[in-house]
Automatic annotation (TrEMBL), chain A:
Transmembrane intervals: 21-42, 54-74, 131-154, 160-176, 245-267
Topology term for the membrane: Multi-pass membrane protein
Organism of this sequence: Micromonospora lutea
Main localization category: membrane
Protein name, per record: ABC transporter permease
Classification of source organism: Bacteria, Bacillati, Actinomycetota, Actinomycetes, Micromonosporales
Cellular localization per UniProt: Cell membrane
UniProtKB/TrEMBL annotation, chain B:
Organism this protein belongs to: Micromonospora lutea
Name of the molecule in the record: Multidrug ABC transporter permease
Classification via PROSITE patterns: ABC_TRANSPORTER_1, ABC_TRANSPORTER_2
PANTHER family linked: ATP-BINDING CASSETTE SUB-FAMILY B (PTHR24221), ATP-BINDING CASSETTE SUB-FAMILY B MEMBER 6 (PTHR24221:SF654)
Keywords: ATP-binding, Membrane, Nucleotide-binding, Transmembrane, Transmembrane helix
Length: 599, 615
């Protein structure tokens, strides 16, 4: 609860900072709206009473009050909502920025790869509105309660029994709650049906899926299944909403009985001369509104509870970011000895299986190191650890003897560059997609062209309609490069840091044709092997294709999270182990008959 | 935005016509509920006044009791009708929307080629017609618009009914209240809908904002961290956020400043609705009960001034139905069920056909030529490998073979018959393909295999055999076996690795061959397989197919060398062809490429083929 107050205070400050005058205007309108039911009820009482009594001044006063109340009820609500939209827009931007900054300050990616955290973060990003609106939720709750209390007081002022009779509105309220629960459960239930229907629908209407559907003739089946899912959704919704409506109708039965009871008590009082005709008008207005007022209170309290979840996510991120803050020594500008892993074991948080087991290895300064292994051997995890995306819970990673954990994470990252297997496809301008590899020199044409040259991305860029100024990504009206082209651009991005201490290239060739693959490898390896550029730099190549590794100074063979072999190509072939077996399996495709031909 | 009245009416009627796709009894039920709902406020006004009248002058109380019960029933009826009406309209909306989506799917599949699916116009219209629009806390669609139009009509009916009650007291008051309310509504509607248009115009910036936010949590997040981009992204996002919001904010404040006339008119009309009956009481012309009736009825007339969701729903839905109408106009000439009758020369049902590409040219709609005078024969039962650099048109060739595109020039023949003269649906039943981006159905493993031959979707034994032949042993280890759902986003879905999915796709093709497909096309079928599986692929999978022609596309020349014939494409035509040994015997590009790939397995690097260009 204390946290919720803290966050409440925070969002209130943000609101005030965004636009003080609008905050005041909204608060005033809210207060006016809360008084509307009362004002309308009172004006009707006065009108009837003064008209019957023939008091002109009273009638005029009542007419004026009623007219203003009506105008406010029609326009005030819309004005307040839209002012709130405007204010929330502003606060929302501020909060989104804050969340992004918090996220940015976390050095590792553990929270971005675990479904549980990712889900919390996703809800937080979608819930920024709720956070922005938090102080207004409290205000709304307050005014709804005040309005309800005023109505009950006014009824009780006519007769205490009438005040007590307002309790008749409680059972209908419970039934409305029940009916809402039925509907919510149905919507949750149908959400999956509907997502699946949309997926099938999209298959029928997109060209990527359309080609296969047309050939197999499965389009009819998919269409029918989508329609069947829709029908099933309609069936469930009909049943549930009918049930919900029946509960609500039962509620109205109670409410109607209570309403009649109130009129009964009231008309007895009027007959006895204890109440005026005006009071009848007032009670009619109040009694008709009571249900809505109660529902609003419950609704506001309910959304406060829902906002509580978002507040929890927000506080989690804030605390997590604080706990993850690390500073440390600056990494060496030039690695003298190398990077060493000693007895490193790793499992992803929330899983039961070690992805790396007791791994010890050394990446010597100034060498090209290859890491091979079949899928699932732990190659990519090794890459994530070396680039500081994860901290190791067991074992140590040292850079020239200094534990990686003691280096400043951001500074270490600045000394590292990489092309990942699932490289990013930044839908920016082509020049930016490359340039963000070194964001300080994003618009430096010299560095950009050097990086492009080093990555061999010249032809790729030249093939784009507007060169470096080409917008990428059809969603933004740009072009969609092929996978190979994206990969070139990613390599260019990595090459924006030519003096990185560690360059990682993870599985780059899965989708490339032979010529492109060859070009890419010679490019990277020649770049790495060039004596004048070595200067202590380490190049790490990761692949499940063995042919690509021959030129590396050192090859590390991973299998099921362990280092099974390590050495140069010649050494490993002599050793005749896993590496030699898999290497031969691939090489046979080219050697047995191929090179016995006229080579 | 000035549309003629005729046009507006036509659009509104078009929306109402959409109601015909819901069941008739539902529509009748809905209209009945709406009618009752529209008339009740007028009745309520009369009953309320009646109660006030009898409360003063009924000594024995029987008329009073009657009046109280009547008023209670009125209140009850209003709320019950509205609850039931909401149930019916909910179902009507879902039916209309479901029908619309189904219609869009049909229209997508009506043309026999797939070129239209790639056009932006089709995609835009298909999305606009079927996708729900965002409202605040609710969705908008053709269905909500059609129902919204009904809501609006009955709101007017309700206002008129209440105005009739007022007119029994004062015709000028009734006319004035109705006129002012309708005018205020039109004015308010114009203002706020214009605001929606301003906001919609920023949709592309909103998309961009969403993209920038996702960058920090999605697949790109790793690189955002690595390259320290977060601050750059957030700064850029902030600037864009303010930039995107500015027009909406400006327009919003403009509207907010222009509420004076509306407030004045509303207060004035409400004042009249209260003052005129009250002054009549002061003059002694009517009693208190009649005054109350007039006030309650007057209020019901003014209710039309409230602008509900329906105005925004209708606006959105008008756009959606015109998108649907455009789709129907362009593609709706034949529906799936009544295509043209099968042409005169059906494909011979048995035997593997011979396919010839005769001087085939093909260019995409942007004019980029892909195939240029291609001549290629696929003999019955042959195993042909297609190789060549990325983007040379290998995948396009498959699409032409399947009749998904028409050649721009030249022709493709099947056993001598021009593909254009064949019934395409029939012809496609002799094809099985594994595309690089094969489909991942949100369905069970069994369905994922069997949908390659939908007519045999229940053949579980066949599915099992196909999976086995494709080497998908992992299926046996899954607790639910063939029934394992592969829809990861579903509640009980299983995620497969890239290699596992690839085996499912291969099984799919083998299942199709088992069910009579005579030409099997495999496009990069080993890209995600590991070394051991890749080296065994040809022997285990390709060689096992004995009843079909096999076309194998691959970058990895080691995987295609056993093919009967290897065809090297370059610049949209055949550069070289022959068996592996034949091609190695000539000093051509294939040999160079093969040696190049193989060179990384030999200790003496082969000729450094820097000269090998890409085209």
């Amino acid at each position: 609860m204390r946290r919720q107050w803290q966050v409440l205070g925070h969002t209130l400050r943000l609101s005030l900072r965004a636009d003080r005058r609008t905050v005041v205007a909204i608060a005033l309108l809210m207060a006016a709206e809360a008084g509307l039911v009362i004002a309308t009820a009172l004006s009707q009482r006065w009108l009837v009473d003064t008209a019957v009594a023939g008091r002109l001044a009273g009638v005029l006063g009542a007419v004026a009050l009623g007219a203003v109340a009506f105008a406010v009820s029609v326009t005030g609500n819309r004005m307040r909502e839209n002012m709130l939209l405007y204010l929330m827009d502003r606060v929302n931007i501020a909060i989104s920025q804050e969340i992004l900054h918090l996220d940015a300050s976390i050095p590792t990616v553990a929270h971005l790869e675990q479904p549980r955290y990712l889900d919390a973060l996703d809800r937080l990003h979608r819930g920024t509105w709720t956070l922005a609106a938090l102080c207004w939720q409290y205000a709304g709750t307050f005014f709804a309660l005040a309005s309800l209390a005023a109505s009950v007081t006014l009824l009780a002022s006519v007769d205490p029994l009438l005040g007590a009779l307002t309790l008749f509105a409680v059972p209908p309220l419970l039934m409305t709650q029940r009916s809402n629960r039925i509907l919510r459960r149905m919507w949750d239930d149908c959400a999956e049906l509907s997502r699946r229907e949309w997926l099938l629908h999209d298959m029928c209407t997109t060209p990527e899926a359309g080609k296969e559907l047309a050939i197999t003739g499965a389009g009819d089946v998919i269409d029918q299944r989508a329609s069947a899912l829709c029908q099933e959704g309609i069936r469930r919704e009909s049943v549930a909403s009918l049930r919900a409506a029946l509960w609500e109708i039962l509620g109205w039965c109670f409410y109607g009985a209570g309403f009649v009871g109130i009129l009964w008590v009231l008309s007895a009082k009027v007959t006895n001369g204890e109440a005026s005709l005006g009071a009848v008008m007032m009670v009619l207005v109040l009694a008709a509104e009571l249900h809505r007022q109660l529902n609003r209170v419950v609704g506001e309290v309910g959304s406060l509870a829902a906002a509580g979840h978002v507040v929890d996510h927000y506080c989690w991120l804030r605390d997590y970011a604080r706990d993850q803050q690390r500073t440390g020594a600056a990494p060496p500008a030039r690695i003298e000895r190398g990077i060493k892993l000693e007895n490193v074991s790793f499992r992803y948080p929330g899983t039961e299986v070690d992805v790396l087991r007791d791994v010890s290895l050394e990446l010597r300064s100034g060498t090209v190191v290859g890491v091979v292994g079949v899928n699932g051997a732990g190659k990519t995890t090794l890459v994530k650890i070396l680039t500081g995306m994860y901290e190791v819970p067991a074992g140590t990673v040292t850079v020239d003897g200094t534990p990686l954990a003691e280096l400043d994470p951001a500074a270490w990252r600045a000394r590292v560059t990489a092309v990942f297997q699932d490289f990013a496809r930044f839908q920016l301008l082509a020049g930016e997609t490359i340039g963000v590899g070194n964001v300080r020199h994003l618009h430096d044409p010299t560095r950009l062209s050097q990086a492009i040259a080093r990555a061999g991305a010249g032809p790729t860029v030249a093939a784009l309609p507007d060169g470096l100024a080409t917008q990428l990504g059809p969603a933004f009206g740009g072009v969609e490069p092929s996978t190979g082209q994206w990969q070139r651009l990613a390599l260019g991005r990595a090459m924006m840091r030519p003096d990185a201490s560690l360059t990682v290239v993870d599985e780059p060739t899965a989708t490339l044709d032979p010529v492109a693959e060859h070009e890419l490898f010679t490019q990277i390896i020649e770049e790495g092997l060039a004596a004048d550029r070595r200067d202590g730099r380490i190049i790490l190549l990761v692949s499940h294709r063995f042919s690509t590794m021959r030129l590396a100074d050192q090859i590390i063979v991973l299998d099921a999270g362990r280092v099974v072999e390590c050495g140069s190509h010649a050494e490993l072939v002599r050793r005749d182990g896993v590496y030699a077996e898999l290497y031969r399996a691939q090489a046979d495709g080219y050697t047995v008959a191929g090179l016995s031909g006229p080579a | 935005m000035s549309r003629s009245l005729l046009e507006v009416t036509r659009g509104r009627i078009r929306l109402l016509r959409q109601l015909t796709v819901a069941r008739r009894w539902l529509v009748v039920g809905m209209l009945t509920a709406y009618t009752v709902e529209a008339l009740l406020p007028a009745i309520n006004a009369w009953v309320t006044g009646h109660l006030v009248t009898v409360i003063g002058d009924d000594p024995d109380g029987s008329r009073l009791r009657m009046a109280i019960l009547l008023l209670g029933s009125c209140m009850f009826a209003i709320n019950v009708t509205s609850a039931l009406r909401a149930v019916i309209t909910g179902v009507v909306i879902r039916r209309i929307d479901g029908w619309t989506r189904q219609r869009v799917r049909q229209l997508a599949r009506t043309p026999e080629q797939i070129g239209h699916l790639e056009s932006e116009t089709f995609q835009d219209d298909a999305r606009r017609a079927a996708d729900p629009g965002k409202g605040v806390g609710r969705t908008r669609s053709v269905g909500t618009a059609a129902v919204g139009q009904v809501t609006l009509l009955f709101k007017f009916l309700g206002a008129v009914a209440a105005a009739v009650v007022v007119a029994t007291f004062s015709v000028p008051l009734a006319v004035a209240l109705l006129t002012v309310s309708v005018f205020v509504r039109a004015r308010v509607r114009r203002q706020w809908i214009a605001l929606v248009a301003v906001k919609d115009a920023q949709a592309h910036n909103e998309r961009r904002l969403g993209y920038l936010t996702r960058l920090t949590v999605g697949q790109e997040a790793k690189e955002v961290k690595l390259f320290g981009l977060a601050h750059w992204v957030t700064r850029r996002r902030q600037a864009l956020a303010y930039h995107a919001a500015a027009p909406t904010w400006r327009a919003l404040w403009r509207v907010l400043r222009h509420q004076k006339l509306t407030i004045f008119l509303l207060a004035g009309s409400a004042g009249l609705a209260l003052w005129i009956p009250a002054s009549a009481v002061l003059d002694g012309r009517i009693d208190a009960g009649r005054m109350v009736t007039m006030i309650v009825a007057g209020w019901a007339v003014l209710a039309i001034g409230f602008l509900g969701f329906e105005a925004f729903d209708i606006e959105y839905g008008l756009g959606a139905v015109s998108a649907l109408d455009r789709l129907m106009l362009r593609h709706g000439h034949a529906t799936v069920s009544d295509r043209l009758p099968p042409p005169a020369t059906p494909v011979a049902p048995q035997g593997v056909p011979e396919v010839r590409f005769e001087h085939v040219h093909f260019a995409y709609r942007d004019g980029r030529p892909v195939l240029d005078d291609l001549c290629l024969t696929l003999s019955a039962g042959e195993r042909v490998a297609l190789v060549g650099p990325n983007g040379v048109g290998k995948t396009t060739l498959i699409k032409l073979l399947a009749g998904l595109y028409q050649p721009t020039a030249g022709r493709i023949t099947v056993d001598g018959h021009d593909l254009r003269d064949l019934d395409l649906a029939d012809w496609r039943r002799s094809l099985a393909t594994v595309f690089q981006d094969f489909l991942r159905y949100p369905a069970s493993i069994a369905d994922n295999v069997a949908l390659a031959a939908p007519e045999a979707v229940a053949d579980r034994a066949g599915v099992e055999q196909a999976l086995q032949a494709a080497g998908a042993d992992f299926v046996g280890r899954l607790p639910e076996g063939l029934d394992t759902s592969l829809w990861r986003a579903g509640s009980e879905g299983t995620e497969l690795s890239g290699g596992e999915w690839q085996r499912i796709a291969i099984a799919r093709a083998l299942f199709a061959v088992r069910n009579g497909r005579r030409i099997l096309v495999l496009d990069e079928p080993t890209a995600h397989l590991d070394v051991r599986a890749e080296t065994a692929f040809y022997q285990h999978v390709v060689s096992s197919v004995s009843t079909a022609t096999v076309v194998l596309i691959s970058h990895r020349l080691s995987t295609v060398r056993s093919a009967d014939r290897i065809v090297l494409l370059r610049a949209g035509r055949i550069a070289e062809q022959g068996s592996h040994d034949e091609l190695m015997a000539t000093d051509g590009e294939y040999r160079r490429m093969f040696l190049l790939q193989g060179s990384r397995f030999t200790d003496t690097p082969a000729a450094q083929p820097q000269s090998v260009g890409r085209h």
